[in-house]
Amino acid sequence: RKEVEQDPGPFNVPEGATVAFNCTYSNSASQSFFWYRQDCRKEPKLLMSVYSSGNEDGRFTAQLNRASQYISLLIRDSKLSDSATYLCVVNRDYKLSFGAGTTVTVRA
Amino acid sequence: EAQVTQNPRYLITVTGKKLTVTCSQNMNHEYMSWYRQDPGLGLRQIYYSMNVEVTDKGDVPEGYKVSRKEKRNFPLILESPSPNQTSLYFCASSLDFGTYNEQFFGPGTRLTVL
Predict the structure, then answer these.
(1) pLDDT (tens digit per residue) in B55-93
(2) B42, B97, B107 member nearest A100 (Cβ)
(3) B14 Cα to chain A: minimum distance (Å)
């Protein structure tokens, strides 16, 4: 079983829509969690860290559910510029494990 | 400008011909790592380094070597490349390995082994 699993999508949404997707992780000892964004096989960039209490950054909201071992990302009021692949990342014992990514396409 | 650089950005080579991909960061980061990215598999860690002269294997270290003689550089060495090492490679660095430290990635190296 992969350490981090994501729905690959793609999620095709119109501008202004809300889109949400999850990621599950297999190891309950995982210590910290992130969402990274990757455009067209360019380098990944940190979108946001995910904290136990959930956190928000503008139009982006991340949630962590340790009991069920999943994290989620919600994007409100989608923009064309949000089109990208979103990578779920889990840290355990100095190693980062990446999901294969969820592709989001926002259409005009 | 704070950045991670990799060279070369693109490389086509043949089986068995030794190659080195360089990685350098100018942010005085302690932690550096190498990943490969293949379709459907996500990024997989090859090697990482907690500091100068300290390196350790990631999830897919077979066929690769690294060294960390200086803090800023972390080259990836393929002694005898094979076609299954055709991939997109990323180098990354972070300040140290605190729980929530951001990883900064280089632009990537597309390697094709014929």
Answers:
(1) 999 999 999 999 999 999 999 999 999 999 999 999 999
(2) B42
(3) 23
- List, run by run, the mean pLDDT of 10-residue segments along chain A (108 residues): 88 97 93 94 94 92 95 97 96 87 96
C-alpha dist (Å) from residue A79 to A37, A41, A45, A84, B63: 14, 20, 18, 11, 42
Chain B residues closer than 8 Å to A97 by CB:
45, 59
Buried b / exposed e over A65-76, threshold 16 CB at 10 Å, is: eeeeebbbbebe
Q: Is B48 exposed, middle or buried (0-12, 13-18, 19+ CB in 10 A)?
A: buried
Which residue bears the tokens 């089986």?
A: B15
